[in-house]
Amino acid sequence: xxxxxxxxxxxxxxxxxxxxxxxxxxxxxxxxxxxxxxxxxxxxxxxxxxxxxxxxxxxxxxxxxxxxxxxxxxxxxxxxxxxxxxxxxxxxxxx
Length: 95
Known about the structure:
This protein has a single domain, classed as Winged helix-like DNA-binding domain superfamily/Winged helix DNA-binding domain (Arc Repressor Mutant, subunit A), CATH 1.10.10.10. The chain is built from four helices and two strands. It has helices spanning 13-23, 28-35, 39-52, 58-67; strands at residues 71-74, 77-80. Strand 1 and strand 2 form a beta hairpin. Helix 1 (13-23) packs across helix 3 (39-52). The chain starts with 12 loop residues before the first helix and ends in a 15-residue tail after the last strand.
């Protein structure tokens, strides 16, 4: 019996941070203001994550991230599985 090996996409720190913000319902503009970059840059990061995850849209991107253990849902908010520290997200230990 062969077991499928799942390869997780490699996200940059910024991509993981923005993915968690989008999962928590922030718009590109809100995420941009929160971290001090241009909204177009946030859009580019979202597109990069979407392509890496082979997702058709943001909903599928977030769903796949949760399903692959890249985001954890706790207390009604999504938190990145990497150590992103903002007042909104809790850092999670690496496995």
